[in-house]
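ARCHIVE CARD
Drawer: 12
Card no.: 0347
Subject: one protein chain, sequence and derived structure
Cross-reference: see card 0346
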Amino acid sequence: MAAKGVVGMANKGPSYGMSRQVQDKIDSKYDPELEMILVEWINRQCGASVGKPEPGKMGFQAWLKDGCVLSELINSLFAGDKPVKKVQSSSMAFKQMEQISQFLAAAEKYGVTKTDMFQTVDLWEGKDLAAVQRTLSALGSLAVTKDEGTYNGDPNWFFKKAQENKRDFSDEQIKAGKNIIGLQMGSNKGASQEGMSYGRPRQIL
């Protein structure tokens, strides 16, 4: 029962009772350099109409908070039908959160994993802006990896994801690969003594 209670609390996210220390730790993960790259990328991806934020975490949050810039960003990565049908700025909190949720659903459809996804409150309430950065970085990496012609920006800004290749191997190939590694390890045992005599001709030279 105790474990269940802990899980329940974890899902709620940070509450008003959270210590300043914990919040500082979360804040310390926010990367100002990554912020600059993300802002530059979003501007190249969406065009000048999305504007630019005030430098710093609060400016970054304010820029993305209504979900419109995020929705423009995800739509720009889809060549055909746009996943977010309606991008509309609103001063109403629930409308802004709805727009953010539409971005998150579209990002998941694009291929961002759940573990890389921020929660709406992370952005809207500024609870974890480092998580927002992580989601946007994952999105950039996917766009570079997919190479569908929709990515606008420097490909070196994001790491290419390597996971794509894993699916290409069958179980038999993986088993065969393990056997080869096993054989190599076995043959290395006998190689150590040969290795000792390896240096002698060099010394003579």
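Annotation on reverse: The longest helix spans residues 171-198. The radius of gyration is 24 Å.
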